[in-house]
Amino acid sequence: MLKVLLVDDEPFIVQGLSLLIDWEKEGCEIAATAQNGKEALAYLKENPVDLIIADIKMPEMTGLELLETIRREQISDAYFVILSGYSDFAYAQQAIRYSCMDYVLKPVEKEVLTEIIRKAANMSATEIQLQEDKKQMERAYLARNVISLLLGKYDDINLEYVFNHMRLSGGVRYIDIQLVGALELEDVEDMEMRSLQRKLYQSCREFLKEDETHCILDVSSEENIYDVGLIYCDYMAAKNDCTEKEYLEKLLNYLKVALKQDLVMLVGKKVADIAAVSKSYGTACMLNSLQAFHDRKNIYYYEEEIQVNSGILLCKTELDNLISAIEQNDKVRIHEAVDRLFDELRRVGAMGETINLNINYLLFQLIHVATEQDDCVNQEEILHLISESTFEDGLMRGSKVHLARFACEYAEYLAQLRKNVSRGVLALIEQEVREHYAENLTLRDLGQKYYINNAYLGQVFRKKYNQSFKDYLNHYRIEQAAQLLVRTDDKIYKIAEDVGYRNTDYFINKFIAAKGCTPSKFRKQSLDTKKV
Q1: Which of 223, 227, 188 lies closest to 455 in space, CA to CA?
Q2: What's the distance, CA 429 to chain centroid?
Q3: What is the pTM of this model?
Q4: Range of the domain at 333
Q5: Are 79 and 49 a contacting pair, CB within 8 Å?
Q6: Contact indicator for 69, 75 with CB cutoff of 8 Å
Q7: Number of domains in the chain
């Protein structure tokens, strides 16, 4: 609702304006009335309005003087309309000089007042949209500078911009907030996951309120990672009169209720200030790969998961033997090495912290080995995907069986990296889509068919086609459906089934998203075009 201030020294004119139109119907409310410019000025200093309609000649302060004062002293940026019984162009000229929206002669007609109201409403809506667009651009530019800091690729210009546009303090952490289970959702397309990700981003901003700029969308550009980043500073918990853990738990619970989804927080190492935030970001990335080997939690803290303690035993000989067997893709040696590692852990009476340290050492070394083969692929994500794919219900995370399965599959992955087999496989997968698009095709099944790790396959597929396999397959199916709509008289439900959709409503929604109209309308438009 636009708030309107009416200013005139003649009460019957104010009353007449109030009754001339249905203000509420036009999306307005008369916030207040004033008998002269001084009275109006006093009100404006305490209350915001969107539109001021003022008589030009009033005692104590005229309408023109009121307009000049509020513009000069920047009291209000409301739209201003002058009412006058004078048609002298000099008055209009003076009003225009101070950004007067309109100059109306008395008596005011209903149609004229209605037109002014609607003009103000349209201008207001346009300005609101422009302001929102500006805010979005500013948020995007700030996020770009923050990401430069996170990646450690920044200069003084990036740092200065962040300092000037974000409230900061000592005690900084990078926190990654992820949708749990996104990695396993083969049947959920990127568009749906992206929608959830945006909802997560919006909900996080709502919780942060005035600190909303600390929330960043799209920190991770990797496949199957749907997350938002948070730059946490110690002042956030302090101003809420709680501990850091209490604050993060409140945030997590708020987000879980808002999304009705399970989430996980990866809390990076605390650093002194924003200039060192890349160190915190790196440790959060480590937690992403480690969580697949440890019991599921809602929040992982770097300090708790990475125990740096010289008194904890590292079974380096056994671990190095296992790494060697994995590099050589020797399945027999892998199982023997895993047995020896767990025998040694039992012999020394290893408990939680010691076991975690040994597994973490193994994972970091394997990431290093893979990076030497291909540094263009996110090896931490690959490791996480493989370890999750080898985990089954009923197993203990990080158990002997889990570790042996993981080690064997990771060995296959390293062998594929050395052969660079993905290049030839992508051509075969294109053919699979062309010939079997109506079937239940998944990267997991295709990976097994062509003996290539599906996590690695997913990344190289996105690199070549700039989209996920799920979206590629969906796009191909929709194109085939479009051809059938034009070339046949088949019912919509049959076409949906023929191209691989078992649910007609789901097919229609996907078709609208791709083509901008329903299948029926698409068919009609195509037929009309042919007739022409």
Answers
A1: 223
A2: 30
A3: 0.55
A4: 316-413
A5: no
A6: yes
A7: 4
Q: Which two tokens stand for residue 5?
A: 């201030």
pLDDT per residue as tens digits for the range 147-201: 999 988 888 999 999 999 999 998 999 999 988 754 444 455 667 778 888 999 9
User: What gap in Å lies between CA 35 and CA 58, rounded to an integer?
Assistant: 8
How many residues are recorded in the chain? 532
What's the average model confidence in pLDDT over 257-279?
91
Q: Hey, what amino acid is at 461?
A: F
Region label for 507, one of left (φ > 0), alpha (ψ between -120 and 50) or beta (otherwise): alpha
Strands 2-7 and 51-55, by their bridges, are: parallel
- Model confidence at 57: pLDDT above 50: yes
212-255 residue pLDDT tens: 999 998 787 555 678 899 999 999 999 999 999 999 999 999 99
Determine the distance from the C-alpha atom of residue 351 to the mean position of all C-alpha atoms in its chain, rounded to a whole number: 39
The CA-based angle 387-446-476, given to 5 degrees, is: 120
Provide the 10 A C-beta neighbour count for residue 146: 26
Same domain? For 227 and 327 the reply is no
Q: Choose one of 413, 445, 463: the last residue of a domain.
A: 413
Rg (CA), the chain: 32
Indicate the DSSP class of residue 375. T
| Residue found by looking up tokens 């002298």 in the block | 88
Dig out the tokens for 267 from the structure.
């809390």
Q: At what angle do helices 316-327 and 400-419 cross, to 10 degrees?
A: 40
Backbone angles phi, psi at 396, to 5 degrees: -95, 130
Q: What are 275's two structure tokens?
A: 């200039």
136 vs 215, more confident: 215
The answer to whether residue 274 sits within a structural domain is yes
Task: Read off the CATH number of the domain in which 117 is found.
Answer: 3.40.50.2300
DSSP element (H, E) containing 70: helix 63-72
* Structure tokens belonging to residue 232: 């946490």
- Regarding whether 102 and 69 lie in a shared domain, the answer is yes
Q: What is the rounded distance in angstroms from the CA atom of residue 463 to the CA atom of residue 222? A: 10
Residues 435 and 502 both lie in one domain: yes
Are 274 and 178 in the same domain?
Answer: yes
Distances in Å between the Cα of 103 and the Cα atoms of 64, 88, 95, 99, 531 are 11, 11, 8, 11, 54
What are the φ/ψ torsions at residue 221 (nearest 5 degrees)?
-100, 10
Q: Cα angle vertex 56, ends 52, 61, to 5°?
A: 85
Q: Give yes or no for residue 366 having a pLDDT over 90.
A: no
Report DSSP state, residue 117. H
CB 3 within 8 A of CB 48: yes
Residue 56, pLDDT score: 86
Tens digits of residue pLDDT in 494-531? 999 999 998 888 899 889 988 889 999 998 888 776 55
Chain segment 17-27, per-residue pLDDT in tens: 898 988 988 88
Picking from 381, 413, 445, the residue at the C-terminal end of a domain is 413
Residue 144 forms part of a structural domain: no
